[in-house]
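To whoever picks this up:

The nightly regression suite flagged L-rhamnose isomerase/sugar isomerase as changed. Nothing in the input moved, so I suspect the structure step. Input below, exactly as stored in the fixture:
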Amino acid sequence: MTINDDILAQLEHQAIEVPSWAYGNSGTRFKVFGTPGTPRNPFEKVSDAAVVNRLTRLAPTVALHIPWDMVDSFEDLRKHAEDEGIKLGTVNSNTFQDDAYKLGSLTHSDPKIRQMAIDHHLQCIDVMDATGVEDLKIWLADGTNYPGQADIRSRQDRLAESLAAIYERLGDNQRLLLEYKFFEPAFYHTDVPDWGTSFAHTLALGEKAMVVLDTGHHAPGTNIEFIVAQLLRLGKLGAFDFNSRFYADDDLIVGAADPYQLFRIMYEVIRGGALDPASPVSFVLDQCHNIEEKIPGQIRSVINVQEMTARALLVDRTALTAAQEAGDVLGANAIFTDAFYTDVRPDLAAWRESRGLPADPVAAYAESGYQEKINAERVGGTQASWGA
Ligand code: LRH
Ligand code: MN
Ligand code: MN
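Regenerated output under the current build:
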């Protein structure tokens, strides 16, 4: 099996948004390791993101996290991104680091705290207005640790009201994307734990509200590709947060832990029409590089997505449908796995070269001297970290 022109044409427009926070230092609750060359401000994070795009032509936008990426002038940040050849992407809100939100944000029983959380989201929409960004991504840490701690049902009612107040402020082309996560930091119940809850709220809000599927936010063993198929069928899949995990929300490089799962997800993406440039689904990385180099880690990540997309495009869907309809269980499975086991790396490397890109973008980065340059330049100041 080889990658033909039809497949290359479908890969041509693939875009994977990178997260600004992947370029800052991150770690676990045990240790955050500092690394030379780490950005000291959002401008430097945008510059690093642009390097990933220059070497891969796969990452034309960078997601922001507010307040981590707060700057005096978003107009300047937007211009800086454009000068570097990329654009600013999704604006992520953050109501998980203030003391005030210890017992909840948009779900809090105190109307003053709820209003504070709503106002933060309205400020995020102001940032979107100033930068031309269309997507507001909301992930809430809201939840409880102990049964009986709070009334689960009234928290849902308050959440619906708060979300409606935010939704109200969206411009015509703007969207509210609601991300679910089954646990952490709350350990007993989480207020948006699953796709069903996110679906129910976004359905009630209206067409501009959609669900975010973060691949690390499910219980082990969950069939994520089924959720992808279902949300696409319902027209409510707004975005992916890609990463991979072995145990919890590990935020490792996408495709690293379970490449076959990424293949199965990309197959459903293609089956559901979400690779079409007109599709509303956006593909975003949500990762941290705790011990590995960050820029090469991001390059590896976008290439992993590209490779698994190419493999999923290799599935002979006509033959697969025929085998499925004939009840040929093993035959259908073989058609599926034949595509998965095809090494597409040489074909993609040749294609990259034909488009003036390096055959091996990770090696090209190592040879580019960029890392040495930022190691020398970015001394002094405070390194950005997950959380600042
Ligand atoms: C929560 C999450 C969410 C946040 C990001 C930093 O676990 O996935 O998307 O915005 O991590
Ligand atoms: Mn996420
Ligand atoms: Mn997460």
